[in-house]
Amino acid sequence: MAERHARLLLFLSILTPQCSAARAFTPLRFSVEPTDTLAVRGLPAVLNCSVAGGEAAVARVEWRKDGTFLNLAADERRRLLPGGSLFIGAVVHSKHNRPDEGVYQCTATLDSLGSISSRTARLTVAGVPRFSGQPEAVSVHAGGSEVLNCEVSAELGPFAHWERAGVAVEMDGRLVQLPNGALVISEASSADAGPYRCVIEGLGPLKASEDVQLHVLPGAGLEERLEVLLGPVSLAKPVGETVLLPCVVKGSPVPTIGWMRNAKAVDQSDERISVIGGGVLRIANLTSEDSGTYSCRADNSNESVETQAKLTVLVPPQFLKKPSNIYAHEAMDIIFECNVTGFPAPTVKWVKNGDAVIPSDYFKIVNQHDLQVLGLVKSDEGFYQCMAENEAGNIQAGAQLIILEQDVALPTSAVPSLTSATTDHVASGPGERPGPAPTAPRDLVASLVSTRFIKLTWRLPAELHGENLTYSVFHSLHGSSRERVENTTAPGEMQVTIQNLMPDTKYTFRVVASNRNGLGESSPPLTVATQPEVQVPGPAPNLQAASITSTSVTLTWERPLTGNGEIHTYKLYYSEKGQDTEQDLDVAGLSYTMTGLKKFTEYSFRMVAYNKHGPGVSTEDLLIQTLSDVPSAAPQNVSLEVQNSKSIMIRWQPPPPGTLNGELTAYKIRYRKSGRRGEAAEVMTTQLSQLIDGLDSGAEYSFRLSASTTNGTGPATEWLTAETFESDLDESQVPGMPSSLHVRPLVNSIVVSWTPPENQYIVVRGYSIAYGIGSPHAQTIKVDYKQRYYSIDNLDPSSHYVITLKAFNNMGEGIPVYESAITRSQSDPIDPEIDLFELFHHPPHTPAPDPSPMLPPVGVQASVVSHDAIKVSWADNSLPKNQKITDSRYYTIRWKTNIPANTKYKVANATTLTHTVANLKANTLYEFSVMVTKGRRTSTWSMTAHGTTFETLPTSAPKDVTVVSKEGRPRTININWQPPSEANGKITGYIIYYSTDVNAEVHDWVVEPVMGNRLTHQIQELTLDTTYYFKIQARNSKGMGPLSDTVQFRTPKAEPLDKMSSDQVGFQGKAGGRSTLPDHGFGSSLDKPGITGSHENHILVIVIIVSVGVFTIVAVVVGAVLCTRRSNSQQKKKRAACKSTNGSHKSKSTSKDLKPPDLWIHHERVEMKPIDKSPEPNLVMTETPIPRNTQEPSGHEVEESVSTLAGRRGVRPKIMMPFDPQPPQPVISAHPIHSLDHLHHHHHHHYHPPPRGYLHHQISLRAPATPSTPVPYVDRAPSSESVRTQPPAPQPPSAAELQQSEAVIKEEDPPSYKPPSAHVHPSHPMKSFAVPTVSVSAHNPPSSALPCTPLLAQPVPGVKTASIGTLGRARAPVAVTVPSAPDSAETSKMLPTKETAYETDELSEEMAHLEGLMKDLNAITTA
């Protein structure tokens, strides 16, 4: 009756109009919420829930299971308790029917107000007791550890325990039961032996496993390899719970277990942390700081093993800020704030009246977790809850929204949750209305309509009823009742811009004015449609990526579904994971293969389509990882430690980061006896150390190490050698007494130092230090055998302590040595920074303590290994002469680039005297220094060593490539660039590629080499109105770098008028005659592809050409007449001079007075008769690929064309060259010579080519000493009219002149020039012959100085043939009879001696022979 009365009052209070005051918020909340529960099959279970608040009595409580309301009225097993809790009478659970297991939630509802939901709770049912496997019998050595497994499911673990011989096993620090039911037995003794069984109890009838026997063996057994029986596994636990990390290692000698977290020793001084069961790490009351990677390391005197796991501590969600209750009016915008924290980061969802809020245009999630409601309507009232959830749990907090009538003022405390768009409107909310409100604003229009905003303007209302009017604009989607409000920013302002609208959508607007009396009348509604948005492409659908190789990825996508117009291109954006910079490239089509990526690296890709309107919507980021590959580097910092006469320990570090190229699966160790190259053994391991045992005593072994991935094995290290001991140390007896013990008392500590026993042949496993006040048995500490000092801390001041030190091994402890000391008083402190070793006084027979500080390493050397690695080595003066490290010292290497601005060092640690520093920059100078650390003592940094990494190929292309046309010369361009950012060495040149086809193969592009470090180059004679493509690559001493991006340039359409005129002249000549300009052979500008001259005919040009032609013909005729007359007169004078100088040769020593007669040959009357050639020579002609024009090219044009073609196309031009594999025969070879005035400047054994423009036309006929003497073949030189004095200005030779060849019959004497005795001045463009006065000797034929290939064979003895031909064709040889002459040896200046000087009669006789020869030649020409 009371409950019904309360509900009636609540109903009446809701119906009562609240005109003057806002109704109060309803306090509805949960005092108790359900929690996760573990139920037992067949037993009852309860999920608690209780509602608190003033209306709790009338709240209706309901339950949901897996999101669905339970019908408890018709359920016989489940019912609602009076307080709201859910009771399940008997839990049902079987393999195929689990109706009670699931997620439950409690809901409380107040009619007409709303409802709230509790957090969720999971009900888990323990299954049928069963064992998935039976435990097995095991045996353990006394003092060792063992594990008995109880294989049950996770939910049965809490119900399992162990019995031995029918009695429950009591758990203590030595026996530990793990959460999975396994039993760990450590420090086993004979009392632990017996039958064991695992028992499941509390889930109905008792369930027990089979009995298994535990055997305990004697402790003094043989050595046993370490074996990890049970190691830690990665797991996640909530804050506040207790975790057990097992580490059970079996072996003999019994190993010691040590734990590390994140490479640092676990602080066991924390009372929450302890090691139980021999090696199980127990952490109670977990905190977030306990997260990390835990490593368990087991070590004995023979080997060590390590295993690790990751512990993640989960933090359940917690509220930093809960949502608050809000009052509001309709059409307002509000925000419910909610801020949570936790690990992992919680997910947040919002619930309204028990139902999830779905984000929409009016319900939005802002600021990550806050809920924004736009344009409130009356139906938005109710309870809103923020629910946060992660793996550790879930929480909820709620708030109530009450929407008041417009005539009810908002309480001021409710304003802070409102948005800025409604603040002014809230502030204007009236309390009482002393006067009338304004009438409706007039003439509401949309003055500006865009795709996503509309600007509205209006006029004043007809009746203001006050001053300082403000306006509120209500807008909604056309046809929707949910309105939003936007207020003007200042009183009197009559315009507002409504933002964040949708394109091509209709909206309805109305304006309401307000004064101090409140809101007035509303204007008539105005419906406006926003503009349609220009459609850029949408996201490319179905973007997929697949790794093809370790360095390439193929991406595919589809055409965007939305977009206006054709897709022009796609832009692919990609970045390496962890890098901030994003790169992009343009691609075409619907697929692309990205190459040049890093191996086994994750990349992010996204795609943007472009159309005529611009870029479209980007796709979501797509992550893809390149495939793995074999490691590209070997393991580093490999060290060898000789353990005994049979084993060597090898330790290393993984390859440098970036070279793994995948997940390392194993390390391969190959070792062999030194000197036996083919007998190498292999060992595979996944650890960073490996004990190699079973070796021979006193033998040297070589080791090398390589890393492996699933793809294979990478490169191996260099061979490292170590030698096993000749014999092992003795462990059949306990160690002797330490040879010395020294103590140094401080205030709260005593520093103890010692030296090992004198008998070094007995094994020492460690030292035991015992101490106490008056007695040494209070505390005992054990330290490693390598340690030589220890600081006993936390002592009382001014106290007398007795200290003992004993060495021990597996046989036991040795004889102790005693010492006592009195700690200092508080008033007598000692400098804590003083070196501990300086405090001791050592007897003469003990080694001197190390100095303080330690000596820095010396002899630091930096040896360059590659372009990115330098090996640093050093020596340590504090080590013995053999530099063998026997203690726990390590070295720190630091390095940086030798740049003043770079002051940041990088460091690495090493335990050997060498370290290879990788991942350096190429061609960069680095400085290195080393420091040694031993315990708490360190040295200063050593002196620096420097090393410059090797050069390597440039890894980036030249940048900022620009092409500009040269002013006034449209066929010429200048290309400029900047050097590559990653030159990796000194740039020695650049290669410019250009082509008119951007898709052509690289080898088909024209090549322009640029030497040195120039950053600009000029390219000439390009085709007008043509698009060229350019790209550049840099070159250093190691090779070529990558090509730059292609740069496009289009040449102008026309040349200047004067240039065009000069081009036209070159094509205006007589038909069949020679042009006034040189013929344009191959390689000229007219032969370039795509380049053509102008063919416009101008009358003025024709007149100029005809005039120049007539003048040239007249000048040639006059010059020929004058030269003929002058030549005849000179010939007569020379013959007379020869006769008058017969008796003067013996007295005159110069050859300049010797004027041989000119012999004229009329070649125009010569008829070339073919002579049968010997069949011996086999002339092999290599044809040139150069195409020919209809006209023969001139000499200079051929030379320039070939050189230009070779330079721009990067190929060597092919020249027609005869080859003959047969022995050389006497020939007449073509060779140009100077006049006698210049003989002393040229020697036959140098063959200097004539300077361009100095055109020779002489031929020297010489006979070789023997038919087998080789005669060199010399390149033909262009010829012109012969000159006797300084050459005229250079003129281009004619095509006919290039076709002539010069014949030389050469006698091979020791290298000295043999000047000719006669000169011939031809009167015809063809070649003439000059006959020298040389001798032919049949005795002592000299050797040839230069190899040659004969042009023609010798057909008839005594008859020489001259080959007269061109580069393009060969003519028949002409028979020439050469007279013999006495032996002579002439100097370059023809100085006569007693043996070689010519007599007058001999010279006359020679002249007669020459005249006879010329008569024969004339007869031939007239025949």
Number of helices: 7
Main sheet attributes: strand count, strand direction, barrel closure: 6 strands, mixed
Chain-averaged pLDDT: 74
User: Uncertain runs with pLDDT below 50, 5 residues or more?
Assistant: 12-19, 418-433, 830-851, 1059-1096, 1136-1398
Give the termini separation. 158 Å
| Proportion in β-strands | 25-35%
Rg value: 53 Å
Q: What is the helix content?
A: under 10%
- Total strands: 91
Judged by helices, strands and strand pairing, the structural class is mainly beta
What's the overall geometry? flat
Which key terms come to mind for this protein?
1423 residues; mainly beta; six-stranded mixed beta sheet; 7 helices; 91 strands; 8% helix; 35% strand; flat
